[in-house]
Amino acid sequence: MTTDPRLAKLSLNQRTTQRWSVREAVDGCVRAGIGAIGLWREPVAEIGVPAAAKLVADAGLRVSSLCRGGFLTAADERARAEALADNRRAIDEAAGLGTECLVLVVGGLPPGSRDLAGARQRVADALAELAPYAGERGVRLALEPLHPMYCADRAVLSTLGQALDLAEAFPVQQVGVVVDTFHVWWDPDVWRQIARAGARIASFQVCDFLTPLPADVLLGRGMMGDGHIDFPPLRRAVQAAGYTGDTEVEIFNAEVWATDPDRVLATMAERYVELVLAD
Amino acid sequence: MTTDPRLAKLSLNQRTTQRWSVREAVDGCVRAGIGAIGLWREPVAEIGVPAAAKLVADAGLRVSSLCRGGFLTAADERARAEALADNRRAIDEAAGLGTECLVLVVGGLPPGSRDLAGARQRVADALAELAPYAGERGVRLALEPLHPMYCADRAVLSTLGQALDLAEAFPVQQVGVVVDTFHVWWDPDVWRQIARAGARIASFQVCDFLTPLPADVLLGRGMMGDGHIDFPPLRRAVQAAGYTGDTEVEIFNAEVWATDPDRVLATMAERYVELVLAD
Question: Is-annotated flag, keyword Isomerase (chains A, B) (predicted)?
Answer without folding.
Answer: yes
